[in-house]
Design brief:
By secondary structure, the chain is α/β, with parallel strands linked by helices. It has a domain of 180 residues: 3-Layer(aba) Sandwich (UDP-N-acetylmuramoyl-L-alanine:D-glutamate ligase), CATH 3.40.1190.20. The chain is 35% helix and 20% strand. Helix 1 links the parallel strand 1 and strand 2. The chain is globular and about 45 Å long.
């Protein structure tokens, strides 16, 4: 008599996504957040590490970057074996690493790419060595989706963004750089609603969501871009992928609103059930 219980029923092979990002030793952002988000969406996650960081919820204490050759070796290893259908970037760490990834994208050897142009940590620590905005502008020419927050969009476009109209203009300017779908995140605007502006070169959409009153926002940008990537891997259109990702982030924020992890901004609850 078997003691292991019934045989598991066969399931279909999950889609595969890739995160190209740094390791957050506090576990709330970076690759840790990305992989949990992929898992919550039923997507198998692969990873290319750009940097190891020593950080917690309050501060980034240090970082060790990989060399561009090793970044490319990781990419070759993953993409040469696994059927990755969507990828995202997080912390890239240096202009050299951004440019190495840009060369791969220009050569057409990367899957559809979601670029989260991470330049500064929530704590204020710089996360890229060198002229990050210029390097990211080169990478954005090959991005299927880009997800800058307001300070990042201001750095990329060298302009102030203070209103919804400014966000709309910024989204158009990002598409002019080559981005397929620009998502300008309005989380830094004051108000009781979460506003994100999306533009794909033809249609402009303003996505309105509930503002969740919580200090636990560490890794929110990573989570949104990872959820967009997971939804693209599942076959959603770019705009539908963004809308679904925004709902997922709101759920994750609400679920962790009462958590008390760390002395600074805490993480999100990535692994609760997805809303229908």
């Amino acid at each position: 008599m078997s003691t292991t219980g019934p045989e598991p029923s066969p399931t279909s092979t999950p889609p595969v996504a890739l995160t190209i990002a740094g390791v957050d030793s506090g576990g709330g952002a970076g690759i840790a957040a990305d992989l949990r988000t992929f898992a919550a969406h039923g997507v198998f996650g692969t990873l290319v590490v750009t940097a190891l960081t020593a950080q917690d919820t309050t501060k980034v204490y240090g970082a060790q970057l990989v060399e561009p050759d090793f970044l490319c070796l990781q990419l070759d290893s993953v993409l040469g074996d696994l059927p990755v259908v969507a990828a995202k970037t997080g912390m890239l760490g240096s202009v050299r690493l951004i440019d190495a990834l840009t060369e791969r994208a220009r050569a057409g050897s990367l899957p559809p790419l979601v670029v989260d142009p991470v330049m500064v940590a929530t704590s204020g620590a710089a996360l890229v060595e060198g002229d990050a905005p210029a390097a990211y502008r080169r990478l954005l020419a090959h991005a299927s989706v880009a997800t800058p927050n307001l300070p990042e969009a201001e750095s990329l476009l060298e302009r102030e963004i203070r209103s919804l109209s400014d966000m709309e203009d910024a989204a158009r300017a990002l598409v002019d750089l080559g981005v397929g779908l620009a998502v300008v995140k309005g989380g830094h605007l004051r108000g009781h609603e979460s506003l994100d502006v999306c533009f794909d070169g033809t249609d402009l959409a303003v996505l309105v969501g509930e503002h969740v009153d919580t200090v636990n926002v560490h890794g929110t940008g990573c989570t949104l871009s990872a959820a967009i990537t997971a939804n693209l891997a599942r076959g959603l259109s770019p705009l539908d992928a963004v809308a679904a990702a925004k709902r997922y982030v709101s759920q994750a924020l609400r679920r962790s609103a009462g958590w008390h992890l760390g002395e600074g901004p805490g993480p999100l609850d990535h692994l609760g059930p997805l809303a229908p």
